[in-house]
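User: I've been going back and forth on whether these two constructs are worth ordering. Before I decide, could you fold them both?

Assistant: Sure. I'll take them in the order you sent them. The first construct and its structure tokens:
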Amino acid sequence: MTDPHVPSIYVDSAPAESAPENSPGSSIPLRNGHLSVDSPQSEPNSSVSTYSTVSTQPTVSPSQMLEQAITDDEKQVLSRTPFKVSLKQLALLSHELPGIHVLRELGGLNGLQSFLCTDVSAGLSVDEDFTCRIKAYNRNVLPEKKTLALWRFMLIALSEKMLILLTIAAAISLALGLYQTFGTPTTYDRLGNPVPKVDWIEGVAILVAVVIVVCVGGFNDWQKELQFAALNKRKDDRNVKLSGDIMLIEPGDMVPVDGLLVQGHSVRCDESAATGESNSLKKISVSDAILQLESLGEMATEDQLERINPFVISGSKVLEGFGNFLVTAVGPNSAYGKTMMDLRDDNGSVTPLQLKLNNIADVITKWGGGASVLLFFLLLFRFCAELPGNTDTPTEKGETFMQYVITAVTLIAVAVPEGLPLAVTLALAFATKRMLKDNNLVRVLKSCETMGNATTICSDKTGTLTQNKMTVVEGTIGLDIHFSSKVEMYTDSPLTVIPISELSSSIASGVKDLLLQSILANTTAFEDASSADIFVGSKTETALLGGQRSHSKMTNINIVQLFPFDSAKKCMGVLISVPHSDGRITYRLLVKGGSEIVLAVSKRYIVSSAPGDDIESLKSEELSKEQQKYIESLINLYAQKSLRTIGLVYRDFPVWPPVGVSVSEDQPDHVENLADVLQDMYWIGLTGIMDPLRPGVIDAVKDCQRAGVFVRMVTGDNFVTAKAIATECGIYTPDGVVMQAPAFRVLSTEDQDAILPKLQVLARSSPQDKKLLVQRLKALGETVAVTGDGTNDAPALTMADVGFSMGITGIEVAKEASDIILMDDNFSSIVKALLWGRAVNDAVKKFLQFQVTVNITAVIITYVTALRDPEGDSVLSAVQLLWVNLIMDTFAALALATDPPTRTLLDRQPARKSDNMITVTMWKMIIGQAIFQIAATFVLYFGGPRIWNYTSEEDLQRLDSMTFNTFVWIQFFNMFINRRLDNGLNFFEGISRNYFFAVIAAIMCGGQILIMFVGGQAFAVVRISGAQWAVSIMVGVLSIPVGLFLRQCVPDSVAYEIYKPFGSIAGFIGRGLKRLLTIMAH
């Protein structure tokens, strides 16, 4: 027998009953009166309320469940051991409804004792060889998760479509570049200088970009995996248990395994972390559970069956009582272990941004490939048409043909946005580091961009919206002193309410002493120096003690007799002796419990507003019927706010035991029943207890709703509590729907989808219900974020697009399942994650808007100038395009990816998964700026010789250099315009807070100036005059007024009407190009 914290109790066991003749591996006959598939069911036409409690029966008999649960392999394993019950059969023993029926079918405790070859009084024998037991049922250790090698992570990173496209383009470009370098003769420029053979640089540069993205992304993922593996190794050792052993429990214990309560006294467990149920659950022994099940009969309701609970669940915490339980499942087979193992399954889902980038890669492949093929054939047709008059040698003709092929392939390289994956990686890396300062620890890098477009948040209540810590928030002392933690709520109320923090100074000393005695003496909770909660016990008792922390060490209380909590009377009491200065000793009975119960036995009340230096001098008056009704109205008022009400009463006795009451046979100075003395009590007051909201939750919910994010509360709490908390948070609105999960679960898929748009609260939900909700929302195209802190939240956290867990109160399972950990446990940190997510998405869109503009311009310029040039050469050389397409884009990615988020990002609706990556506003800027850039470049290239009367080769080479310089400065100033995606005119907003942007802009300026002065032959440029520099920069600056004109004077609606027919034509051409490429591929 193992004991994590050995309680000082003596455990006696009842004589063992005879074990059942049949083992679960064989066909067990149904017991008399047992439920089977032939048992009477509810009338098919009976009308059952959505929120009513209905009769619940298993549709398959427990014997059939047991028979179906065991496999042939498990039968072979069991045949080689003395055990007669399999792992999967033991797994049926759960807190779910069939579990209690299966327990009875197995013969209860004595049947399991026989099947598991154990002793329920002593546990496993130290002389046993545990090899067979471990082989059959495992040990309480999860198998170590294998960490993928670094190259596997890099391979995963390389599997993205955009990187595959870049790799193919780079390989082709490099091959042709090497051919031009080593397989073609040297060429000369207009001045007779040899042109450097650097065509291979484009392919190498693209490959370098791919390698950087793959290495950075793969290394980051691999590093995170190692960190979490190291964290797992540091987890607390759970005092390894084996199935069949007996384990002792006491208040404060965290249960490490699943089991069945053998014996116990007033055992209550907190299963909020495991099941989401915020109320403490009473556990009864297996023998009592079987008796209650038999007494209820076949038509037991769900509520009745839920109260028959002998199941001890791993991950729960013992609040009250002592006992011992039989271990039934350990390690990966326990409820905790199963959840942990499920979290290891990576669904490999694609984020919305990845999906949209993949679509862009497909479009680029179609258009770039189609355009390059078309350019090649146009050049080829021109080549064939010129053949009759062509005097070149066959070798020269072959070189010309290869030049056409190279030009066509270069077009693909120009069309591919090689900086885009790098921009995404940089934006995510920057955001995740900054998010950590905002208490968001990002585990999965891509989750932060997904959060930016979240359309709904499914939040757990306990521990997420609330503090999972019961607290006194309101109350009344006597009849006229009211206190509250939210005084502002009573501004229009006739009641005079004081802040709870001022209560101590607002009441007489005698009243204060009486309150302290009632709370500190009449409790079963105790202090635990190692616990952050300070007190260990039921949530109600710790809540009362929590308000009296500074007085918790009162030592002048002498306890004479304790009256444990009576479930029938719903109250508990304590008797203390009160010494007097004259030597007399009187006895004070302090009772607390259900407010209606203790009010009914009260005859007088304390006049709390009257002075009184000690308890004896306090004034009391007769409690009239009107005053009793007034207190009842206060109780109802608190109940409407979903507060748990506790009444406090007392009475002084001159002697103890009082005359005429029955006393205990063993202790003659103790009264046997509290009910015998529970009369003529003095009413002290009423307290309202609740699990308070976390600070900032209400504002955070408003921010989410302002940002177009639908917030839902999914909780294991009952209907009334869930609705009240949701209303206080601002989640529930008058036109919303509150529903219980069992009712939602049985709806058809169509009905579920129909109710989801208005469903704001899902109460009484199990882990499967939360998972089902996420499934249906994702099926409707929603981007779903889920928050939670317990084991019960793990399945939904894993399935969601983004999972948030609590860093402080969240348990290990929830953290493993989540993508982002809220380090401060504050729901409002989700708003910061939302802001950063939108900033990441905007950064990618800003860069995409900038990149596509550059690419469209470069493709058209390459297309036109290659067709015009006799040799098919473009106005921009390969190295110049390298600077424009890669170096400039990399710097632009850094500049645009480092803009911090602003609160204005919450003023727009989230983008849905079906929305296009490039919006109408973005297309307006892209096409408008591309037209300006192409026009400016063509004017300089084609009209420059006439405008400036250039005729010499030296002047024409300067013109080419000025054209290149102008093109770069146009991109530079266009980068400033692209800092905004909307139609706002202030594109400098927030630039003073982004030092990266200023530094990178300076580097880009310096780099271009350096190229123009010392680039020389490597970049195919010559030095230009001051006037030419002025022209280059002035034309570049024109990007800004052009951008302002497009935003201010061209409405999106007009742009859409213009774009719409062109979009249809482009779609038609795109489909044609796709068919053409398919035909060519075959």
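The second construct, handled the same way:
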Amino acid sequence: MDSEWQELPLTQDNQFGPIPNIATIAFDTQQELLWVGDIHGRITSYRWPIERQLLRYTALNAHTEDEGPVQQFLFNEKGVISVAAKSVHFMIRRALTQWHLEDKDMIDLSCMSFLGKESSHQILVGGRQKVMFKIDVDEGSILEKVPANSDYIMMKHSRLYICAATNTGSIDFLHPVTLQVVKTWSAHSSKISSMDAKNDFLVTCGWSTRPHGNPSLDTIAKVYDLKKLEQAAPISFPAGAAFVQIHPKLSTTTVVASQNGQIHVADIHNTDHVKVLHMTLAHFMSLMIMSPSGKVWAIADQDNTIHLWGSPHDLQFCEISKPPELADPSMPSLHMAVDADMPLSTIGMPYYYESLFSNWGYDRELKVQKPPAAIDPDIFKQLRLDPTGSGRAQWVTNPRKVRRNQVDLNESHLVNGSSTSKNRISDTTNRLANVALSATKEVVPQLYQYARMNYDHKHGVKGFDFEHYNKTAHSGLENDIINCYLNPLIQVLRFTVLVRNLALHHVAGSCLSEGCLLCELGFLFDMLEKAGGTACRAMNFLKAFSSRPEAVKLGILEESSPRNKSDARLSTANRFILEQICNDFRRVLQYDFSLDQTLKTNGLQGYQCLNCGFETHRNEFSLVINLMYPDSNLFNRPRNHVPKFSETLGLGFQGEQRSRGWCLGCKKYASMESQRNVVRVSDVLIINAGLEKSPKSRQLWTNPGWLPHEIGITVEGNHIMCIEGQQLQPFRNYRSTTLYELVGLVAEISGTETQSSHLVSFIDVAGSNREPQTESQWHLFNDFVVAPVDQREALDFAPHWKTPVVLIYQVSHARNSIDDSWKKAIDINPLYYDGSMNHLGNPHTLTPNEEYILPGTHVAIDAEFVVLQRKEIEISYSQTEHIIRPPRSAIGRLSVLRGGSGPTSGLPFIDDYIIVTEPIIDYVTQYSGLSEGDLNPTTSRHAPIHLKVAYKKLWLLLNLGAIFIGHGLYNDFRNCNIHVPDEQYIDTSKLFQKGEYTLRLSFLANHFLKEDIQVGNHDSIEDARSALQLYRKAQEFIAKGTLEQEVDGAHEEWRKRLAFQRLEEPRRDIGAGELLGGRMTPEGGGRRGVGSRPETPVRRGRGREEGSGLFESPLRGGGDGG
């Protein structure tokens, strides 16, 4: 505390008058702003400019006047959170509301706290009520309602606990994860006036009840040791402690103040040494707060005046602050003399977000050919007519003015000899003017257009903001993988509850078959549910799909049949996938026909020879129903009759068609007529729209409401009847009537001038929620773009650019019937055997009947990868590089170690080498430790296993509740194609992160563990064990309260080594294929594997980080790698 501290002369809010009825004040932690909340729910911010004046910055009525005063502020990088009695409000610092939460259980809120550091995305809100709220700040949603142990009036977050003060003078210490009360401390006998917590200490001041008198302020400030959970020596304050705060930068220095302006600055460990200050105030103090830098105090008195105290030579609210965003200054208008000498290009034009009428596209052009040459008048003179009197020309003498097959190009001789050049231009203009705008292409809305992923050269896909394209809780799928045209179909199947349940039950069973599509669907469904809005990849599913030889024959692979239309390809792929997953289901459970009953419609197919009338019948099962559109030219059909959807579906069930086949009666090939009699309809109806074969029928889909959300199907005898709309009402209670609801559909979005057509899906996600909901919730899934849409928009096919391809209906009684019983019946046997093909034996397994994976079990993990495909780069005319497709890699080795503290801690129980069947272009031996032949089952000495077995082990650990510990886990999980929730992994690169900078695993091991790892080639067991030891070391630092200091020291040591390394390295240019950071880059060199081939060198510029040694393995991102 500088002796020069004094009250600062302020000019506050000169334009708008005094601040009325101040309820709370707070300093911003990110910018030089002071926030004030009044008793009417209004929030005002004041900025601290160079002029040393408080100038009003923003103001907003965040809460209604009925709620009373603003109780508290919290700040993070994105904005400001405020709480009042019945609502929680979040806005950016420019006073633009991001979300506003109200709930029937919000009765009298008064306090809140982050559940982690200030960068946490979750807060806990409580008050004088029996319910607390756990809120997601990013989503603006209530995650959980937590019962409160008491009525709380204040909350402070410490390193270990959330300290919640009650209205009776006691304090509850809440665990930040479970939110359970760990201990209760009776601090004051009446109530608490102020408190603050930092690191391991809590300081409070309050009121105590005196015998036969009113409560009065205590003459001590009480101190509590949060680490030992016991009371420490109090701080004496005879004037009556009304306000208390721990210095933001000095963790043991406490400021205690009275209502009349007396201030004591004391050290918690040495309460005898006190510095006394006094502020001269005309009125009693009502609020006191210290800035995050500790250099400025803000004091509000009972006259609603704010006083700032500090040193005039060092005024700063934050240590590192961002400048507030101010309005752009208005540009003075320029006087321009409009005359013949002034070019019109100097007049600026506005930017338009919509296409102008003057922007004529290619579709609006009318090609006008050259008019035919005029007929020579001499020909008419010599024309001879037919003598029969028919008036037809019979013959004419050739005047021979030009050679044979030649015409005169003289523009004066035109049609009929009367048109001039001017008339011809006018005629063309008139024809262009008659082109109807309705016949032109409609503009495809941006939400439906193909979204392309952009990759950052430094961070790769991590630099792409997926949250900008998806603000829902439903995950999308990335579209940078071959055959990702299946993404929309996968999404619809995922939200089909019956398919989802069976797929997850299957994957939780004993199936270990390589290439099982049903298992891959189950893995993918589980990943999408756990992701909760984060974009995922269908990499393993699409790899299994592409590996099927039947897929090549059917022409449904993009790499083998790139010219096939997307709608026809998807229709064929839809039928193929359904057949495969039914076969996969029966392969494991031969006598379980649950999936067949769910997907297959049973019928009796009849064939009749049109030659001899011979009839044959056979049983037939249909996985897909093709809509059949009635012929509009039938004699018995009214001219204006519009067929309903139910009619086309009924014709599709009957499947009446003609074809040639072998007749047993005629004993020869003849025309056959076939028709199906439906016996049983499946629980899930998967329907092909069939418009690729009947394009004229698309006009039916343009009728409003033509596609019904609900249909009924009645099967009686050999007759099937499909009903919809008002006609369905009388049949709802019929025993033979089954009701179906539309789950979703896949539609083709026509291409634009710069993009080809692609597929999207529209899904009613309400039917797959665990909580029943009556209203529909339609969403658009355009790969990783996910957005809610109105039902009318989802089912509207009037725009010509939107065409239905596949529809999925499901029985109505299956709505919201989510079955999670598979989680209790998971087959854990793969964790207890190696699964290798050559049966060499692998000691790295769990011991049966002795070792179990329980929720919360710590395991250390590391994976190594090999390169299958280089990244594809597009270089523009300006020499700018754009990554079209990132490098593709495959997992080559997976190692998982035991955690805990027993004798087996740090020993591996999974160390699998994985078979890679695709050509490997680079083993990256220096970083993966893998070499040629290690992943080939015929030549490897490591007993490699199939990817399916290794992946299922990882999936089992995830669903058993294990907590993964590793270094740079983002890229490991991404390349393994698995999503692990944040609460189930601990990344040591983040534990020792400072700002945006992370440190290499080898450096951290050397600095903290005094071990040299990654000497030579990498070893995944060594890396995983080092990460486990670093985690334990970080826990020791946290217990001592020295983690922040240790991290600062590590980063300082790294900077010293980096500076020394740069001085030692010779200065030279680094080209493609040269050493980057002391090692060979995979783009230009390194070990090549089987199938390697020369590459076109890529031009590189020397970035500021080249040669720094900060880079990790090329298969890992930045400093996150191990």
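Notes on the second construct follow. Residues 11-17, 411-422, 431-440, 1067-1122 have pLDDT under 50 and may be disordered. The chain has 19 helices and 52 strands.
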